[in-house]
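We include this case.
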Amino acid sequence: MKSIKISLEMAQRVKEFVAITQSCECEILLKSGKYVVDAKSILGIFSLDLSKPLTVEIYCDECDELLAKLKKFEA
């Protein structure tokens, strides 16, 4: 598992983030405090408090390409 902190404060960034995560076959979770949602679910993401940094957890052996794509969202 790998994890990074990201920021998704605008709806456009959420849409872009979901497009990237949906193209990956790995399990990807998004955490905000005690809440955990599927990072491929736009409705799940909008249920979180997006004013604070979120933690992305990627459950995949080879996720370097995905991490490179998510770099622009880092908090």
About this structure: The beta strands are 2-6, 27-32, 35-38, 54-59. The chain has three helices and four strands. The domain at 2-73 is CATH 3.30.1340.10 (Histidine-containing Protein; Chain: A;). The chain has one domain: 2-73.
